[in-house]
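Notes, p. 3: input format for complexes.
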Amino acid sequence: MKRKISECPKELEDLIDSVNLVPGDLEKFESDLLELSKQFNTELYGKDNPTKTRMAKLLSEYGKKIRNLISPELEKRIKYTVEQNGFENVVFQLRRLVNERIMFRDIIQAFRMWDIDYNRQPYGIDAELFKLFTKDFDYDRQLVLKPTFNFSKALSAFSFNQDTSIELLSFRVLEILTRDKIPIERLRICPICKDIFWAKRIEAKTCSKRRCSNNFHQRKLRIKEYEKRLDKEFKNLKKLQSSLSPKNSLITQQRERVNKLLQKIKKEKMKNGNL
Ligand SMILES: [Zn+2]
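Output follows (275 residues plus zinc ion):
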């Protein structure tokens, strides 16, 4: 039987590549950005009105600080630099990418829940999915999403155009997924590197990086070994229980051995995303 291989649509692939470049610890990354933002504003407006020279100096300084937080690839992707486009602009672009990634993650997790727990029965994914909008965005000079549970509002970040009209900035991930009727079952989170990936084969467990699939399969083998050992140790426990008095220390020791193995297996399975 021929296995069906499905290629990721180009535009979606591009977006996935971008969001995967966002530093993995999203909460920390966001708070780092926020902290820099506060510092920047204090330095800029703290004393008196900023002069051109001071502005240039600050931009170059904060350009470096931002570059310390992100990879050169990510900087290239957002196509903005602090020196040329301003600090807030770059922070805004980065935070949007963070939110796109959170949106990806939420959709993928909601899908798994719907698939496994609800057996694909009709089920409305409600505001729970959009928890991220309940966060307080506390730098207010920027045009960012207002914290709200309202779906349409959640989508409405906007920016001003040169002709003073406004542009609606919706989530690209939602735009692409709904417009192109993307099968969400193809979207996964790699249990090893936590990247978002497109499953070319429906049975794919990890992203396409060799190091991830090796890691996953080696762990699978290890789990099998542990399970074999568990089987043996469990049989030994039964044997001891049938021949010795229940309070015999040999039984206690053996039970401990079994429990340790069980814990180990559970831990390893979790590292493989329970797949
Ligand atoms: Zn991976």
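The first strand starts at residue 157 and ends at 160.
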